[in-house]
Specification:
heterodimer, A: alpha/beta, six-stranded parallel barrel, 13 helices, 24% helix, globular, B: alpha/beta, 2 domains, nine-stranded mixed sheet, 8 helices
């Protein structure tokens, strides 16, 4: 309980990491190490059908032949994949039927995080498929969504109840052997979220998941699959916090989005995992593969991310624009402070005619942080009339950090129009002086200027997320201006 | 691929070069380790080296310089100091160095090489560029321009600006595949200024592998204009290293028109404070030409300004690549660096790959880059058609304006009109 007391003594918008506490819960944990038996253990634990076990094993064999990628501008301490634990589930007796049955420890944790559950969820208008470590414990609003035919459940549940949908779409956007971390995820993924929006349905609420890494030494391998059928619309929120600890934790998630003809998916992330301390000790390794496919004409996928956490971020949410007139968007704010490293960006693959994409990326480096935008815009020969606009701005705070921009533009159709702009600058003394003169503290002035710098991205976030994101920016940059 | 590697090693064993034996051996051994780059190497991912992979280009043997004439097309048209290389070797008959001012030396590298030996060999072998290693193994000649400090005393001190531009022509004529490895040097001492116009041209199946080192001293300035108009079957690899001292200025322009495969690597290191680097150019490609412009501008000292503009016209099935990197080190505060790459894509199968890159470790900087790719503006075409121009004339005018805008960045009048003439020629040939 000392951790709880410790939390109480931490002021609002922490001097330090607000969510750094560990919940004492008995986890049912797989022994450390990774081989085929680990995968069979996970699959058996989750009572998965044979085809899924085979799919996992295939992925594992592919992964064994791959090497960890080294092309990113990141310094990654060697990861011992055999030392990690690949399955950890909160103990459950019967499975909770209502909030009363949920482990009170868990509820407390959520309370600290401010996750609206039950009635609070209803008031906030958010349906939460809360993921605690690896297994979903509570899902709300199911009935309301079910009325519209929307399926929103944990991935494990979807495998049991909607195997035909899972089987049809799983791995079609991010194939098993897509990259090292995606292959690892495909082999050992524990749980995640699944959503299916039937044709013509507009999902009436923001779907949301809070991820939280808990048990020590547990890599998290979330698997999310979202399908918006013809003409459907869904907005999905993902927010992350993680407890403070000293060892690096690996997180290799895979998110697949499928938008059929005329469908629209908005996917927003606020990532605030533990970034390590000021000396770079600890922190999460966030190696994520996120990709969406616009499978039909006029489909639209929009990624918005606010990345403030993690020791190392390796993440490129991408759009495959197959359908004619489909649209891809990427809005990103990435902050690196202290010794954080981020190599993040997007890929826009234009395949269909008149496909359009927009990329707005804002990178902020402070302390000794290294922040890289890496993006690809590819226009295939048949993508007549494709358009892309890219803007990457970097802000440097302090003279020991780095901001890097690595765009790739690969154009194979003469009717394409592709524009890329990037700037790098620091916060000007004039701006700071102006704010200080009007009575703002140094930190408030910085926060104001940074929020202005990120405005184009933050305005893409749903309101409640935007508020949280603004606070996060302020917390993340604390102490960066002396 | 491995046959090609062995091919060059065998060609090395047959060559009869007398100088720099140990250095040559080390270089060919290094090439043996490296082999040709594959597209898995990030720096070479866009460059299609097939012409070099499919065919061996043995080094051109000494003493077989074909009798060549100087095509009027490649004359600058103003009085100059002219230095001509044919098939990688100094051709005195075609050269006309005139009276070089006091303290200026322009001579074949074969003459100065023995004195320069360690400086020529040391730096490149540690690098993982196999073409630099091959160059070190095979080069025998090139041009060497240096300006020594004038002896103090009775001598009148030299004017800072060289009286005439220096014209360097790299001509080639080959009946069978040959490779031409030249090592060239330009050394501008503090406070002096000069203009160099370099031209590469030729015919037949040859491979130019030219390395040029440029050192610009404190407060010195160089205008460096390059026309790459190699023959249709040629492969051109040009590698430039430029070092800038405090307050030095480099103003470079490359117009790339020729060869089936070309790649120009330019690496600028800003070593002194408040230097200025202008690195501009244009590439016009058609048929199935492949061209890569790769630049790295490394700011290691504070207060420098960099402007980089490259414009590409890529027609038919051609493939144009721009890989530009700007690095600002922590010490290089107050750097002001801007880079721009614009491409006109004119063919259904034309391809452009561009990777403008910024790597910044200092906070008090102003850096930007931009890249744009598109075809001719429909509205502009319509405007010209409405005024009675044919479609072909309208297109030509727009392409001319697009590429001409880049050439306008050339400050030297004679060099600018020289490049314009070649642009006109390219446009005229396109219409045929």
């Amino acid at each position: 309980m000392s951790s709880v007391e410790a939390l109480d003594t931490i002021g609002p918008l922490g001097q330090g990491y607000k969510y750094g506490f560990v919940t004492a819960i008995d986890a049912e944990t797989a022994p450390p190490g990774l081989d085929e038996s680990t995968i069979r253990f996970i699959s058996a634990k989750k009572r998965e059908p044979d085809w899924l076990l085979d799919w996992r094993l295939q992925s594992f064999r592919a992964w064994q032949k791959m090497a960890q990628p080294e092309w990113a501008k990141l310094r990654i301490a060697p990861i011992d994949y055999q030392a990690a634990t690949y399955y950890s589930a909160p103990k459950k007796k019967e499975g909770p039927k209502s909030l009363d049955e949920v482990d009170p420890e868990l509820l407390k944790t959520y309370e600290k995080l401010g996750i609206p559950l039950g009635e609070r969820a209803a008031l906030a208008g958010v349906a939460v498929d809360a993921v605690f470590d690896s297994v979903s414990v509570a899902t709300t609003f199911k009935a309301q969504l079910a009325e519209l035919g929307i399926i929103f459940c944990s991935f494990g549940e979807a495998v049991q109840e909607h195997p035909e949908l899972v089987r049809k779409y799983l791995g079609t956007v991010v194939p098993q052997g897509d990259n090292f971390f995606a292959a690892l995820n495909s082999a050992v993924f524990s749980d995640g979220s699944f959503a299916y929006i039937p044709p013509g349905v507009r999902c009436p609420m923001e779907l949301s998941t809070y991820f939280r890494i808990n048990a020590a030494k547990t890599g998290q391998f979330e698997r999310t699959l979202l399908i918006a059928d013809k003409g459907a619309y869904v907005s999905y929120l993902e927010g992350c916090t993680a407890p403070q600890r000293d060892e690096n934790q690996l997180h290799a998630a895979v998110v697949e989005l499928v938008a059929l003809e005329g469908a629209e998916i908005k996917y927003a992330t606020v990532q605030n995992w533990y970034p390590g301390d000021a000396e770079g000790k600890g922190g999460i390794y966030n190696f994520v593969t996120k990709r969406g496919a616009c499978r039909g004409a006029k489909a639209k996928i929009s990624w918005t991310q606010v990345e403030t956490g993690s020791a190392i971020t390796w993440k490129y949410p991408s759009c495959i624009l197959e359908g004619d007139d489909s649209v891809g968007e990427f809005y990103s704010v990435a902050i690196t402070n202290n010794l954080q490293q981020a190599d993040t960006g997007t890929k826009m693959i234009h395949i269909g005619k008149n496909t359009r994409s927009t990329i707005i990326s804002k990178g902020i480096s402070a302390g000794r942080g290294q922040n890289t935008y890496r993006g690809l815009v590819r226009v295939q020969p048949k993508a007549q009339g494709a358009r892309n606009y890219t803007q990457c701005d970097s802000l440097l705070i302090g003279d020991r950090c780095g901001a890097h921009t690595v765009p790739y533009l690969e154009i194979r159709n003469p009717s394409a129009r592709v524009e890329h702009e990037a700037t790098t600058s620091k916060i000007s003394e004039d701006q700071l002086f102006y704010c200080r003169q009007r009575g703002l503290s140094q930190e408030d002035a910085l926060s104001l200027i940074v929020n202005g710098f990120c405005k184009e991205v933050l305005k893409e976030l749903p309101m409640e997320f935007a508020v949280e994101a603004q606070k996060l920016l302020a917390v993340s940059l604390e102490g960066s201006v002396g | 691929m491995s046959d090609i590697r062995t091919g060059y090693i065998e060609a090395f064993q047959k060559q009869r070069a007398k100088s720099r034996e140990a250095a040559r051996r080390a270089a060919i051994a290094r090439f043996g380790e490296l082999g040709l780059p594959t597209r898995r190497a990030e720096n070479w991912r866009f460059t299609n080296l097939r012409p070099l992979e499919q065919r061996l280009f043995p080094p051109a043997p000494a003493g077989t310089v074909p009798a060549a004439t100087l095509p009027p097309l490649y004359r600058l048209g103003v009085p100059s100091h002219r230095f001509v290389l044919v098939n990688g070797r100094f051709a005195p008959a075609l050269s006309d160095m005139g009276d070089l001012p006091l303290g200026v030396s322009l001579r074949p590298l074969a003459e100065s090489a023995p004195a320069l030996a360690p400086a020529l060999d040391a730096p490149f072998l540690r690098e993982s560029n196999p073409f630099l290693a091959l160059n070190a193994a095979f080069f025998e000649d090139g041009f060497d321009l240096s300006m020594t400090d004038v002896v103090a005393g009775e001598q009148p001190s030299p004017p800072p600006e060289l009286d005439r531009p220096i014209e360097i022509l790299h001509l080639a004529a080959a009946a069978n595949p040959v490779s031409l490895h030249t090592r060239n040097r330009l050394c501008i001492p503090p406070g002096r200024r000069c203009t160099i116009v370099e031209t590469f041209a030729g015919s037949g199946p040859y491979w130019t592998n030219a390395v040029l080192e440029i050192a610009i001293g404190d407060g010195a300035a160089l205008r460096h204009i390059v026309l790459q108009d190699e023959g249709k079957e040629a492969v051109h690899l040009g590698h430039r290293r430029i070092r800038l001292g405090a307050g030095a200025r480099y103003d470079g322009f490359t117009l790339a028109l020729g060869s089936q495969l070309s790649r120009q690597d330019t690496i600028v290191t800003i070593e002194g404070e408040r230097a200025e680097c202008l690195l501009n150019g244009a590439y016009l490609l058609r048929g199935s030409q492949e061209a890569t412009i790769a630049t790295l501008i490394d700011h290691a000292a504070p207060g420098s300004a960099t402007r980089e503009v490259f414009k590409g016209v890529v027609a038919d099935r051609a493939h144009g690549v721009f890989q530009g990197k700007i690095v600002v080190r922590q010490a290089a505060q107050k750097t002001d660096a801007h880079q721009l790459n614009k491409n006109l894509l004119l063919g259904r199968q034309a391809v452009v790959d561009t990777k403008p890159e910024l790597e910044i470790y200092a906070d008090d900087v102003k850096c930007s880059h931009g890249a744009a790719i598109g075809d001719l503006d429909e509205n502009a075409l319509f405007y010209l058609r409405a005024r009675g121009l044919t479609a072909a004339e309208a297109r030509r005018m727009l392409i001319d304006a697009f590429a001409g805008e880049a050439i306008d960045l050339v400050a030297d009048g004679a060099a600018r009109s020289y490049l314009r003439r070649h642009l006109e020629r390219w446009l005229a040939a396109r219409e045929e």
